[in-house]
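hey can u check if this looks right to u? its 365 residues, i copy pasted from the old doc so theres a chance i mangled smth
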Amino acid sequence: MAIKIKKFTITRSKKWLSLSAAIIIIGVSIFSTIKILTPVKEEEEIALYTYTMKAGCNYEVSLIENEVYDRTVMGENLVYPKSIFDKLKVNFYAEFIGYPAVNSDIRAEYIIEAKVRGFHTINGEKRIVYEETFPITSKLGMKFTDQAFISEEVSLDFNQYESFINEVKSILQADPESETELVFRGRFESKTKYGNKEEEFAYSMALPIFQSLFSIDKPADIEKTGSITETSLIEKSIDRFIIIVPGTIILVMLLLIIYILMFSTMPSEKEILLLRFKAIMRKHGSRIVRVNRSTNISMDRVLEIKDIEGMVKISDQYNIPIFYKADEGGLPEDNKFFIPGKDFCCIYYLAPSNKYSTFYYLSGN
């Protein structure tokens, strides 16, 4: 059985408004579809070569033979007596590891030294009075491939640094505060096919001098990371499943356009008048009165008003309602609204009229 699609009436303006809206929606949906199907290119940094560098130390304290301790070597994080102190042994280490292994040429060098400073504190600020550097050991021009490991053990006592400080005090005839630190500093340079990277390190540890009982605060290891990167344009595609949404919208709008073009008809003159009448009643119904018959209407002077807004203004000005007499279909008889007066009658026609063309035409604008 064939399905019959009922035709519907629509005004010309609403028809073209509906068609225009559907075409605009189709255009937007097509644009969205193109955007979805077009891969998005984004800049992304790609690491070609990465590395980690570490530097630190471990230590032990040697004592001279004595009757108090049954051992002459003490580990870290203890309290040590200066009276039987012999040597401080510090093992410094550093490493540089690159990835991936691309036969990178790594050069390394380091210096181990002690720094002695005298200072005076003013308003919480250290101001250096003197400084002296005591070189202990160094190595230059070390070569490695892909990975570099450095380890160096040094032994020292504090007598040399304490003697220097005492000598300075006697020369200066002053007793500034003093500090001594053991410094392990150096650098790694890695040469790869992707480029070169250089990292420096400086690891220091305070030495407790002029203390009868002392401990050593070992700092945490230094750790650095880095990379050689390049920026590339990466295509990132959107989930193609999303294309169903604009595709469905396009299909629905095309069907709507076909339906409007094939099954819409222009309203008849009577339907147009009915639509106008309903619009007027929705907007100005409170001012309009339906009557069964027209009486006491002066037709000696008739003013045909151009639009309903003009009628509303006259109604408000003279405080007289707008009247109409309904025909059998409920529309105003002769398609007219009127405002009766003693000397004139104002008339507005739903449809243009030439009946009173020789008289006045007023507009609400």
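The first strand starts at residue 8 and ends at 9.
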